Amino acid sequence: MAQAPTPAKATASILAKPGLARTFLSKHVASADQHGRLVHNLDATLPDVTEERELAPGLYLVATPIGNLEDITLRALRVLKQAGLIACEDTRHTQKLLNHYGIKTSTISYHEHNEAERAAELVEQLSKGARIALVTDAGTPSISDPGFRVVKEAIERGIPVIPVPGPAAVVAALGGSGLPSDSFSFRGFLPAKSGARRRELEAIRTSTATEIFYEAPHRLKETLEEIVTVLGSTRSVVIAREMTKIHEEFLRGQAGSVLQMINNREMAKGEITLLIGPAGAEKTPATTSVRNRVQELTRDRKLDAKAALKKVAKERGISKSAAYRELQQGR
Fold first, then answer.
1. Which residues contact 258 (CB under 8 A, 6 or more apart)?
2. CA-to-CA distance for 12 and 6, rounded, in angstroms?
3. For the whole prediction, is pTM greater than 0.90?
């Protein structure tokens, strides 16, 4: 009878199968020190996944972490490593990310103050077959950040524009907000001046979607006061602050109570995403029957019965079948 292979021999035999190697080590190597040594040796033998494919010429829009440096994809790292040049909103900020991952690619500045001339320069290089990665300080390029001009000019010249998706504060905030996500609108930064800001808020007074903005910390209190004045103290509001960082925080509630929270603390700091719930949602507590809520949606928002039931289920955090059962019981 053949003798069973020892853990050492078995480890050597599966090095050609990276997906199995770590699982094997965790199950069959009892010593923590030995496990550490074997994992170190394993890492040295595995292929570098970021080197597998050659980068094609074009403009790459690379999403980078909004805070936590671990929030970056393997593809993004490969692109940053293989690109001939990285265009950055702030080269010093991006260099911290590159240093963290040992990436040596050259960088050049591309920001709102030099966007026009730099875009023309980059597009000229791209037209000659360059491989350029575009990044901003955090998140996805051209989403309330520099990038639109060079993307537009590259497209007009027939140059490939390749998005490398990843972090975006607007998506992270919406997912963690608890507000309806079946319909939403991202509107960028609110105007800095009070009059323009009030007009922007007035425009969403009857909005049936979740509205998302970026806001500066020093304007947050004044903005919340205007939300209370224009949209009412019971309008649902969420403030997402310093997402993915050590001091990450979500403040959720009616506009009046969130304003009180802000008044009772020092001025907010860090990156802020402000979400405003749909109009009328504050008038539909869970105590309202499913049947009445469906009738409201079909009457006021012109939804058909199927779409209305789906929305009610989402509002209450229950399955559509559970909402349907409640609807039938209420008849």
1. 224, 237, 238, 239, 251, 252
2. 10
3. no
